[in-house]
C-alpha cells in the first residue's frame, strides 16, 4: 500500500500537479496574510478617492482629515492618498511623495482611536472620534476576490495544460503565463482590499511584484504566439524572449523607465506585437485546419480578454482618470482569455471551436458597435439617451446583422445542396446500374458536400460514421456494395469536420439505404418476370428454331445458328446469367468461323490460353462483348472486301482488350473523323460505352491495308449460376 502511494506521489505528472496546487495555496495564503494586516476606521467607508463617514439616517459626510488624539494638527487627505492605481501616479517624485504620505497615515492609524475631520452639509468641518479596526474576511470586498479568483484560475488552467503535455514548449510558456498572472493578481489583491493606507515598504513591494507579474505575463503571451500553433523561432530564442521580462522588471525596479506608468506602455506594446504575431501565424497555418481552429479560438480569446483590458485602460488614460480605473473588475476579462487558451492549446473538440469562436466574435463586435454608436450619438451629436438608444438599435439591426449573416455564410456555411438537389443526386446514385458507377457517384456527392483534400478507402470497415483526430478525418461506412471511405481535410484543407457534417452524412446514408432497398425489392420482382419470359423464349422460340435447323440447307443453316445464339444471349441477359470467360470466347470464335467461312474470308483467331486464370463474366458484360464482336465481324463481311480477319483478346486484371482487324479497303475518312458512320459502328460504340468501356476506329498502319476496331471493357466478375438456359 505504501509503495503504491509513493509511486503515485513520485509520478512525473503527479509532482507537477502537487507543485501547481502548492504554489496556488501559497499565493492565496499570501494574499490573505497581506490584506488582513490592514486596518480600517469603524463607520468610515471608501468611495472612490474619498472617505465617507456614515451616520444612520443621514447622508454620508466626507472625511477631509485624520489625526491621532495626541496630535495638535491632523493630516489633510488628498485624492491621491486613496488611489488604487499606483501605476498611474507617473513620475517617481510624485510616487515617493505618495509613499511618504502613506507612512504618515499608517502612523496615525496605529492609535486605537483616530480623530476624523468631517465636512458637514453646511460646509463646516467638525471632528469625530472613530475606532481603528483590523480588516477581516467580512470587510474584504469584491475588489479583493475578483483578482484573486482570476489569478488562481489562470494559474491552475495553465498548470493543468502543462501537466497534460509537460514536454511541449507551448504548455511550458502557458504555465509561465499563468504564473505571471498569479503574481500580478496576488499583488493587486493587497491594494484592492481597499485599506485606508499601507506602509511604503508594502506599497513598493506590491507594485514591484505586480510589474514583475505583468512583464512575465506579457512576454509569455508574445512567446506563446512565437511557438503556437506553428513554431516561428527556435527554443533558444523563445527562452531569450522570456528572459526579457526579467530585464524589464529590473529596469523598472531601478527606476530607469521614466515613471510608474511605463508599465502601460509595455502592455500596449505587447498587444501590438501579439496582433502582428497572430497575423503571421494565420499565414503560416493557412493550410493546416487544426492549427487554424486553435489559432482562431486562441486569438479571439486573447483579443477579447486583453483587448477589453486595454480598451478600458485606454479610455481612462484619455480622460486623465487612470488612477480611478476599476482594475479589480477588469481582471475578470482575463478569465475569457484563459478559457480560450486552455481549449486552443489542449485541442479539445476543435471541430466545435470554429463555430463557437465566430459566434462569440460576432456577439462581441455587435456589443462594441452598439456601445460605440450609442456613445457617439450622445457625446458627439448631443442627442438624448432616449433618442440615441433606438437609433443605435436600428443601425445595428439594419446594418450590422445582415453583414454578420454574410460573413457567417462566407466563413462557416459552405456550398450546400437544396433538398430537391440532394434527393435527385441520391436517387441517381442509388439507381445506377453498376457498383462502379454507384461508387463514382457516391464519391462525387461526398466531394460536393465536404470538399475533402483526400478521399481513400477506409483501412477497416466501420458500421457507423465517426470523426477522428479533432475533426481532420471522417470515416464513412460502406453503403450496400459501395466500400467504406475515409475523408480527410475538409473544405479543401481549410476546415474541420463537425457534428453537423456527421448529422448530414447520416441523413444522406439513411435516404440512400432506403432508396437502394426499394430498388432491390423492385429488381427482385422484375427479375422473376424476366426469368419467366426468358424461359418461354428459350423453350418455345428456341425449340422452333432447332426444328427449322434440321430441315435447313447449307445456305440458311448459319442464320439459324446465329438466331439460336442470339436467343441464348438474350435469355441469359434477361436472367443475368454469368458464364466462364473462356467458354464465352470459344463460342464467339466458333460462331465467327462459321460466318466468315460462308463469306470466303479466312479467320486468324488464336485459341484462348489454357493456363489463363478463371474469370466468371456477368450476362450484361457478356452481351456487350459478344454483340460488339458480332457487329464488327458483320461490318467486315459487308463493307471491307477483305480476304482475312484477325481477332485478338487480352485480359489484364478485369480489363478485356479486344482488337478486330481486316486486310480490306479500310474506313473512309469521314468515319475516322467522326463526321459519318453507319448504324453498325454506332451500335458497337453504344454497346461498349454502356459497360463503361471505350472504342476506337482506325485504319491499318501505313504500308498495310484494312480497318481496325478496338475496344476495352472493364468486366464485372460474378459467381457462377445455373446453366439451365444454356443447354
Helix content: 55-70%
Overall 3D geometry? Answer: rod-shaped
Number of helices: 22
Structural class: alpha+beta
Catalogue the unreliable spans. 1-10, 347-353, 719-727
Give me the count of strands: 18
Biggest β-sheet strands, sense, barrel: 7 strands, antiparallel
- What is the rounded Rg? 44 Å
| Overall residue-averaged pLDDT value | 77
Describe the overall structure.
The chain has 22 helices and 18 strands. The protein is α+β, with helices and mostly antiparallel strands and 727 residues long. The strands form four sheets. Strands 1, 2, 3, 4, 5, 6 and 7 form a seven-stranded antiparallel sheet that branches. A hairpin with a 7-residue loop joins strand 3 and strand 4. Helix 4 packs parallel to helix 11. The N terminus and C terminus are likely disordered.
Outline:
59% of the residues lie in helices and 12% in strands. The protein has 22 helices and 18 strands.
Feature tags:
18 strands, alpha+beta, 727 residues, 22 helices
List strands and helices in order, with pairings.
Elements: H1 2-10, H2 12-36, E1 39-41, E2 44-47, E3 50-53, E4 61-67, E5 75-76, H3 92-108, E6 113-119, E7 125-134, H4 142-164, H5 169-192, H6 200-227, H7 235-253, H8 262-284, H9 289-318, H10 327-330, H11 333-346, H12 350-379, H13 385-411, H14 419-430, H15 435-450, E8 454-457, E9 466-468, E10 473-476, E11 485-488, H16 490-493, H17 499-551, H18 557-574, E12 579-580, H19 581-598, E13 602-604, E14 616-617, H20 619-640, E15 644-652, E16 655-662, H21 669-672, H22 679-690, E17 694-699, E18 707-714
Parallel strand pairs: 13-15
Antiparallel strand pairs: 1-7, 2-3, 3-4, 4-5, 4-6, 6-7, 8-11, 9-10, 10-11, 12-14, 15-16, 16-18, 17-18
Helix pairs in contact: 2-4, 2-5, 3-6, 4-5, 4-11, 5-6, 6-7, 6-8, 8-9, 9-11, 9-12, 12-13, 14-15, 14-17, 17-18, 18-20, 19-20, 20-22
Amino acid at each position: 500500500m505504501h509503495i503504491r502511494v509513493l509511486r503515485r506521489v513520485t509520478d512525473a505528472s503527479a509532482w507537477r500537479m502537487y507543485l501547481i496546487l502548492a504554489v496556488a495555496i501559497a499565493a492565496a495564503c499570501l494574499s490573505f496574510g497581506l490584506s488582513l494586516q490592514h486596518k480600517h476606521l469603524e463607520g468610515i467607508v471608501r468611495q472612490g478617492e474619498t472617505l465617507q463617514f456614515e451616520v444612520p439616517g443621514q447622508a454620508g459626510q466626507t472625511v477631509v482629515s485624520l489625526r491621532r488624539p495626541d496630535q495638535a494638527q491632523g493630516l489633510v487627505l488628498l485624492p491621491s492618498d486613496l488611489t488604487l492605481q499606483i501605476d498611474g501616479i507617473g513620475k517617481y517624485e510624485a510616487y515617493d511623495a505618495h509613499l511618504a504620505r502613506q507612512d504618515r497615515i499608517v502612523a496615525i492609524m496605529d492609535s486605537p482611536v483616530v480623530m476624523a475631520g468631517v465636512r458637514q452639509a453646511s460646509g463646516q468641518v467638525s471632528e469625530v472620534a472613530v475606532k481603528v479596526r483590523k480588516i477581516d474576511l467580512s470587510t474584504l470586498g469584491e475588489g479583493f476576490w475578483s483578482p484573486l479568483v482570476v489569478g488562481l484560475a489562470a494559474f491552475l488552467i495553465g498548470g493543468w495544460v502543462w501537466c497534460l503535455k509537460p514536454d511541449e514548449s507551448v504548455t511550458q510558456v502557458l504555465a509561465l503565463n499563468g504564473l505571471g498572472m498569479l503574481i500580478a493578481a496576488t499583488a493587486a489583491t493587497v491594494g484592492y482590499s481597499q485599506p485606508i493606507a499601507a506602509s511604503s515598504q508594502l506599497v513598493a513591494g506590491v507594485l514591484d511584484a505586480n510589474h514583475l507579474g505583468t512583464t512575465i505575463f506579457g512576454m509569455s503571451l508574445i512567446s506563446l504566439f512565437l511557438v503556437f500553433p506553428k513554431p516561428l523561432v527556435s527554443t533558444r530564442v523563445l527562452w531569450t524572449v522570456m528572459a526579457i521580462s526579467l530585464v524589464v522588471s529590473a529596469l523598472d525596479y531601478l527606476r530607469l523607465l521614466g515613471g510608474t506608468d511605463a508599465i502601460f506602455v509595455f502592455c500596449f506594446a505587447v498587444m501590438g506585437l501579439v496582433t502582428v504575431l497572430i497575423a503571421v501565424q494565420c499565414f503560416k497555418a493557412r493550410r493546416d485546419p487544426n492549427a487554424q481552429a486553435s489559432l482562431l479560438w486562441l486569438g479571439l480569446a486573447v483579443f477579447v480578454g486583453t483587448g477589453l483590458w486595454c480598451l478600458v485602460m485606454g479610455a481612462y488614460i484619455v480622460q486623465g482618470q487612470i488612477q480611478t480605473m476599476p482594475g479589480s473588475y477588469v481582471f475578470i476579462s482575463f478569465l475569457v482569455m484563459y478559457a480560450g487558451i486552455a481549449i486552443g492549446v489542449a485541442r479539445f473538440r476543435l471541430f466545435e471551436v470554429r463555430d463557437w469562436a465566430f459566434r462569440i466574435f460576432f456577439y462581441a463586435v455587435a456589443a462594441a458597435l452598439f456601445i460605440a454608436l450609442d456613445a457617439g450619438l450622445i457625446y458627439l451629436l448631443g442627442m438624448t439617451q432616449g433618442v440615441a438608444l433606438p437609433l443605435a438599435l436600428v443601425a445595428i439591426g439594419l446594418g450590422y446583422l445582415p453583414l454578420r449573416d454574410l460573413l457567417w455564410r462566407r466563413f462557416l456555411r459552405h456550398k450546400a445542396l437544396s433538398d430537391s438537389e440532394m434527393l435527385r443526386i441520391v436517387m441517381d446514385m442509388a439507381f445506377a446500374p453498376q457498383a462502379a458507377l454507384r461508387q463514382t457517384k457516391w464519391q462525387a456527392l461526398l466531394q460536393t458536400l465536404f470538399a475533402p483534400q483526400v478521399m481513400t478507402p477506409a483501412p477497416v470497415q466501420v458500421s457507423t460514421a465517426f470523426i477522428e483526430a479533432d475533426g481532420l478525418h471522417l470515416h464513412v461506412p460502406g453503403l450496400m456494395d459501395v466500400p467504406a471511405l475515409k475523408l480527410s481535410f475538409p473544405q479543401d484543407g481549410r476546415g474541420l469536420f463537425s457534428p453537423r457534417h456527421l448529422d448530414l452524412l447520416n441523413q444522406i446514408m439513411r435516404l440512400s439505404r432506403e432508396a437502394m432497398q426499394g430498388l432491390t425489392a423492385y429488381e427482385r420482382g422484375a427479375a422473376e418476370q424476366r426469368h419467366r419470359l426468358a424461359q418461354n423464349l428459350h423453350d418455345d422460340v428456341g425449340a422452333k428454331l432447332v426444328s427449322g435447323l434440321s430441315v435447313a440447307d447449307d445456305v440458311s443453316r448459319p442464320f439459324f445458328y446465329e438466331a439460336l445464339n442470339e436467343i441464348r444471349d438474350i435469355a441469359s441477359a434477361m436472367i443475368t446469367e454469368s458464364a466462364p470467360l473462356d467458354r464465352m470466347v470459344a463460342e464467339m470464335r466458333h460462331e465467327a468461323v462459321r460466318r466468315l467461312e460462308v463469306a470466303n474470308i479466312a479467320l486468324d483467331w488464336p485459341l484462348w490460353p489454357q493456363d489463363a486464370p478463371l474469370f466468371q463474366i456477368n450476362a450484361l458484360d457478356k452481351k456487350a462483348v459478344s454483340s460488339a464482336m458480332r457487329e464488327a465481324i458483320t461490318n467486315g463481311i459487308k463493307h471491307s472486301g477483305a480476304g482475312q480477319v484477325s481477332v485478338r483478346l487480352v485480359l489484364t486484371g478485369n480489363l478485356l482488350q479486344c482488337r478486330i482487324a481486316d486486310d480490306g479497303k479500310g474506313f473512309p475518312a469521314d468515319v475516322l473523323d467522326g463526321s459519318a458512320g453507319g448504324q453498325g459502328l454506332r451500335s458497337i460504340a453504344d454497346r461498349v460505352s454502356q459497360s463503361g468501356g471505350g472504342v476506337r476506329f482506325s485504319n491499318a498502319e501505313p504500308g498495310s491495308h484494312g480497318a481496325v476496331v478496338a475496344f476495352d471493357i472493364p468486366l464485372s466478375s460474378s459467381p457462377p449460376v445455373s446453366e439451365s438456359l444454356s443447354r
